[in-house]
Every structure is written in structure tokens, then in C-alpha cells.
Amino acid sequence: MNENLIQHYPVVIVGGGQAGLSTSYHLRARGIDHLVFEKHKAMHSWQTQRWDNFCLVTPNWQCDLPGHSYAGPDPDGFMKKDEILAYLDGFRAVVEPPIREGVSVRRVTPRAEGGFHVSTTSGEVTADNVVVASGGYHEPIVPRMAERLPASIRQIQSADYRNADQLPEGGVLVVGSGQSGAQIAEDLHLAGRKVHLAVGNAPRCARFYRGRDVVAWLADMGYYEMSVDQHPLREGVRDNTNHYVTGRDGGRDIDLRKFALEGMELYGALRDYDGAGLVFDTGLAQALDDADRTYNGINAAIDKYIAENGIEAPAPSVYAPVWRPAGERGRLDLAASGISAIVWCIGFRPDFRWLDVPVFNGAGHPQHRRGVTQREGVYFIGLPWLHTWGSGRFGAVGRDAAHIVGHIAARAEGALQGSAA
């Protein structure tokens, strides 16, 4: 193929979600020509991979996409799915991105003369820079043991869950207690379904404490400005499971112990299927205790901040367990339990096989510093803890985009100066 006939762009962005469009916003502000490829529709995952009662777990005032801060009537509330989609539609209108929807990027390879060759389902282009804005949640994680479960059991992944009515009558096993697992278990529980929950090692936090949303306290304490380099876990924080809490019905705690009192069956982590029953770890009590320890620890840090700054606030408190398992069930007979469906909520793995550039570590994760890789011209954005807690959320992805675009602009300026010399 004659590359002289291929259209060239200074920047190609792969992914049309909030990260890709935030990058487009800052490129446009600097007058840098670019193109966005999105294999589905812009904001696809928000439209198609969220359940009907989904809402944000962070308050609306933290929604601060570039040029499109939340301006609605309820800054302390939590946008529901339809409101989120409307907010994102407004953001797209602000950005007016040069986007090609329904186009998949098949491969990105370096060019001998510099820059990159980008092969897509609609043709070929070349680019000086490639920004990977496709996120890190590509392939749902489902254990191989799922293949051995009876065909009568309906199995879906969290991204495909919409509501209780889509599942057959009977009990539902939710596997995983991170944000999605805990909230889907609650959604089913509130719909009157018999829920069995396999609890993992996810931590939890309070929704409100001492008169305010915990998020507001943590923002005042500077937690959301802490970079990955400053975090005690350093890059290990990127592997952390998010705390479970909810913004539903104005926001509240998710207390799995309370659900157990109301009839939800709790188990340890799911480990195997023995041909007739499900086998669980006997670590439920420890998992619940660890989650509560994190909950109380966050509140204690808020107590310390209030005391050190002489802030008037309601009295402190410590969560005390309202239920404890009376022994642990290591096995559940599927037939006897009446379980008709399983919702897998154990996360996703990234798939960057299309990016044929040496920017990955031994575990297949991109190596970068605030999205800037060691390979000139390759950038990542929108990943969890790319730089701060908000990097994968509406709150700080815009700042990360501005940083990356600044790097791209400086690189282009350097190239111009070099050619002039």
C-alpha cells in the first residue's frame, strides 16, 4: 500500500468515551488536528453496560468534564442512568469531536520513519501520536468452572445485567462484592428476589458521616489530589477493589450484614463447582470484618481531620456489626438451593493486543507515568489511578487529558524547532 495516499493525522485517539472526548477537547483548544475512532457509539458503555437503576456513587459536584461541569439543581445528589446519559450528551455537544463511530482499530504499529500506522475496519491512517482512551475494562472475567455448571442455570456478566425481571424465577447467586456486585445484589434484594452473595475482599465506606457525605470530607482532606506516586501503595493501588457504597435513593451505606438479617445468604469467595454443589472459601467472617475495619478507619481519619481543624460537626461514631455468621457454609447444593441464575461480578481484564508497540510490563499492563509511556507518541488515558483517584472518573480525567495534550504539543513544538535547525 502506498502510504503517500493514506491520510495522516497529528493525533489519533482510540476510544470515544469521556476520556477520549476529554482529550479531543484539549486538542481542539490548542488547534491540533486529530481523529477519534470509536468501535461502537460515543459513550457506548454508559448506554449499554449499566443496569436500569444504576446511579453514580460520587456526588454530582464531582462531575467536572472539560468545559462541562455539572450545572444541575442537585449538586449533592447522584445522577441516575438517564441523567448521566443526558450529561454526557451535553459534553459531546460541547466538544464536537471529529469522531468516526462504528470503526474498530485493528492494529497500531510503529513506522520506520516515525509515528504510527493505524489499521481500522474502515481503512488505514497514519499518526504522529496515538492516545489509547479505550479504558481497561474489555473482557469480562468468568472462571472456567462456569463451563461445567448446569445448562439450566442462566449465567450473565455484570455488564449485561439490567433488572431482576430479565432473570428466570428462583434464587440468584451474585459472585463478587465490589461496587457492581454489591449494588446488583441490593437491586435484586429490593426487587424481592432470593439473593445468594459470594463475598470477596472488597472494602466499604460510609455514605454520610458526621453530617456530610464522606466524599466531601475526603475532598477537603486532599485525598482526591493524592497522586499514585504519593499513595502508600504506589502503583499497587491500581489493583485495589473499589469501596462499595451507593448513591441510590439519595445515597446510603451498603451493609451486607443488614442484608443478611433481611434474608440474603452470604458466603465466602466462590472457588469451585464439584458437579452438584458450589464450593466457597470459609472466609466470610474475615471478609466482613476487614470491610468494616476499612469503613471505621476512614471515619477515624475524618475524626482526626475534624479535631485538628477545630471543625464543628455531629459526634463521632463507630460501626458495630449488626449480624455475624453463625458458622460458615463451605458448600451449597445447587438443586436444593433453587438458584436459577448467576450474575458474575468479578471484574474485567484489559485487551490491548491491537497495540503492537512495546509499552507493556510482564503482566500485560501499560507502563506509563501519568499516561505518558516511554515510547514517544504513545499515551494512555482513562485508566484507574492513571494519576489520581479521579483519573478513571468524571472528576479528574479532564486534567489528565490536559497533561497528555500538553506533552503532545511540546513534542510537536520540539519537532518543529528541530526541523527548523
From TrEMBL:
InterPro entries: Auxin_biosynth/cation_transpt, CHP04046_FMN-dependent, FAD/NAD-bd_sf. GO terms for molecular function: flavin adenine dinucleotide binding; monooxygenase activity. It comes from the Bacteria. Transmembrane segments: none annotated. The keyword Protein transport does not apply. Keywords: Oxidoreductase. It holds the Pfam family Pyr_redox_3. The keyword Transferase does not apply. Signal peptide: none annotated. Coiled coil: none annotated. NCBIfam families: MSMEG_0569_nitr. This is MSMEG_0569 family flavin-dependent oxidoreductase. It comes from Ancylobacter mangrovi. The lineage of its organism: Bacteria, Pseudomonadati, Pseudomonadota, Alphaproteobacteria, Hyphomicrobiales.
